[in-house]
Amino acid sequence: NWPMPVLKQAVQPTADQEVAMDELERAFGRASNGLNAVCPDGVPGMPSARLQAIEARLDTTWVAVQTIQVAIAEFQKQLNDEQRARFNAVQLVTTQSRGPSSF
Prior knowledge:
Blueprint: H1 4-11, H2 15-38, H3 47-77, H4 81-89
């Protein structure tokens, strides 16, 4: 859950860069939606079901990481050196914390 207004303030994107920033925001949304879809509210009762749930979470986490990496790389290509330095200096505080997994 990246605070996009904080990133926008730090980077101060041009109108052309706004398109790339919007795509970055959509990539975070896709990654988040994918993770939320495979994170069960409860713990499956059967060990084999727990293992399947863990595998699904790992696979989805990997896809989410790749999605975000590509989007960040594409966004950073659009930035000048000063903007890139400000982007890299942003300290993002998580707005929602999940406890340790119960798996």
